[in-house]
Amino acid sequence: MKRYAFPYRREYSTLIGEIYRPIVTVYLQAKNKRWVGFTLYADSGADITLLPKSACEGLGYDLKAGEQGYVGGITRGRIKVYIHEISMKLGEEMFRAKIAFAQTENVPPLLGRTGIFDHFKVCYDNKQKETVFIVY
Fold first, then answer.
1. Are 108 and 50 in contact (CB under 8 A)?
2. Three-state DSSP class for 126?
3. Angle value at C-alpha 41, between 40 and 46, nearest 5 degrees
4. How far is residue 119's CA from residue 61's CA, in Å, rounded to a whole number?
5. Contact predicate 43/51, CB 8 Å
6. Beta strand 35-42 with 23-29: parallel, antiparallel or unpaired?
7. SS3 for 59?
8. HSE-up of 87 (CA within 13 Å, CB side)?
9. pTM, 2 dp
């Protein structure tokens, strides 16, 4: 059974002080076929992976060539996004996933469930301060 573990990252919250947040490093395939690494917050509440506009441009894709949509969060605000289906690697596992690129830079980089969590059993281990992805 393949297992990929990612340590939480220690950060500071103005609301509660020091906190450890689950992060994961994934690789997305750029238009020129090169793999580019991204560190994202592993967010089991996010429906789709979300990245800022500059990530789309850095990968060589035309932002507006994606399917237009909107995402929202706990504030009920909506952010315009363009969804692209891109090859992703998590550990040694490679698959296609839908990535929502925001029309703005003002978004946190989130690893959402759609197209990703289907491949893994995901465990948020707060005691060990790591997120574990186990291949099905």
1. yes
2. coil
3. 110
4. 25
5. no
6. antiparallel
7. coil
8. 11
9. 0.94
